[in-house]
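Bug #77: duplicate submission created two jobs. Keeping one. Sequence:
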Amino acid sequence: IRAQRRLRDAIKCTLHWYQSAVKPTDSDVGIHLNEDTLLEPPTIGHSALLLLGICNSLRLSILVQDEIPRDVVDRLVQGILSMQMENGAFRIEFGKEEFLRGMEFFPGEAMLSLMSIYELSATSCMPGILQESTKNAILPAMERAFRFYSNYYYTEDDVNTNFNIWQIQSFAKYHDSLGFDLTIKKKEEVRNYVIEMCLEICDSRSWKYQLARGQSFYINLETVEIACGLDALAEGIRIVLEQERDLLPDNDAKLFKMKMQAINALYFLEWSQGQVPDGVVVGKGGLGYGGTEVFEQRLDVTGHAISALVKLRNLFVLLP
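Kept job's structure:
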């Protein structure tokens, strides 16, 4: 209980600190985090992670809605939306005119934060967390983003599989938001995109060759790719399970492949944790950066692993 209280206090202090460290965008549409606080140029990724922290803290009742200034949440969302270009792609760094980028981590994080706050705003316990105009702008922005990023994925050769992780999670939520009436074709397009990216993770080098029976040839090798990929793969498994068999005749083969790789990844993560000696400075139980030795514990990688475990447990897919 004491550890849980300390964790809650740490989360509250972190969120309250960053909430107070915001400034208007150059276009005066929305806000972003302050460069002086970040000690680096502010990006949509910074805004996204703050929004995701707020969303999950509200879901877990670590924070109550009255502790979150509504104008901060709403204007953070507006700030991210203001960074979308006409073709659907997102610029990354606030206050900077950028050349067109393709797949990147930050746009995926931003889209996941948009869909997470959209979901939260649709629940009966979180009314008014967004202005109606801001909420109504999210799904059209996601539609434009889907057209750009899916086209880029299918037509370009320089897509890094590691970028799939945030794309899968954000568009899985977008998929969930689509109804079954006039959007059935669109829903199918998004579903196919998500599943194809999941299968590409399964066939990537880290998963196909280095992940052998749940162990690595080197201590902690490829932990980042495995932990983060598993977080995304859980979304693909969920979406396949939710579909009618007649819509996807090869569901069984895709599901089997993703489940087997997910099982291997679970064994790998358990094995990887065991490679950290007792009393090591970085702490035992977390997951490190990767390589032949564990030099540090990365909280983001550990967080992805925990998120994946929760998702898989909720699916009742991999546990006996």
